[in-house]
Amino acid sequence: ETGVTQTPRHLVMGMTNKKSLKCEQHLGHNAMYWYKQSAKKPLELMFVYSLEERVENNSVPSRFSPECPNSSHLFLHLHTLQPEDSALYLCASSQGVAGGFTDTQYFGPGTRLTVL
Amino acid sequence: TQLLEQSPQFLSIQEGENLTVYCNSSSVFSSLQWYRQEPGEGPVLLVTVVTGGEVKKLKRLTFQFGDARKDSSLHITAAQPGDTGLYLCAGKRNNNDMRFGAGTRLTVKP
Q1: Is the backbone of residue A47 left (phi > 0), alpha (psi -120 to 50) or beta?
Q2: What average pLDDT values come out for chain A (116 residues) when binned by 10 residues?
Q3: A35, A43, A46: best mutation site toward chain B, by most B Cβ within 10 Å?
Q4: E-strand spans in chain B?
Q5: Do A4 and B30 touch (CB under 8 A)?
Q6: What is the C-alpha separation between B42 and B106, in angstroms, rounded?
Q7: Nearest CA to CA, how far is B21 from chain A (Å)?
């Protein structure tokens, strides 16, 4: 495996379900990110982790809970989601935190989430 | 109102045509990036521009950063079906806040 991988690629869940999204980067990077991409809206940065510590949390509802057990893996735990949470969830990684634009972000293919 | 406005939102052209898409803001950015996202994939970085007035070329793609560092354009010459995708701009402000536009969805028909 190379680059940034995400599983599952597609997920359908009910509002009472609990599920988790997984991201793995094979690039030796130190920073990882979760983004939400909804139709016709800009990418929304949700969480940033640098060296396994959360450095940014952009007012994301508590029904989204991130976990970064090591610098290669990032999870997004989902609980009691709403239909408006349906979107493409993208994971990215970079060598350093993207405060410096020299740290290019590499994105995974995303998980297409549908909440019924 | 979005921080970065991209236009047009949708663009459908024939192979061989030229096109320009725009990324505009009232904010000043220390740098700006363009990404292309193909269906079923994540965005892939095309270019980073950091100097006002800067022009960068990537084969048939020409990127320009506005003199005031508030806007940018992407021009594609002789578009090909392989150029089809969602083009996103992302700007970083001096407080390290990075924001994306909503994108221009380009379709190039053979």
Answers
A1: beta
A2: 90 92 94 91 90 78 94 95 96 75 81 95
A3: A43
A4: 5-7, 10-14, 19-24, 31-37, 44-49, 55-58, 61-65, 71-76, 85-92, 98-100, 104-109
A5: no
A6: 16
A7: 16
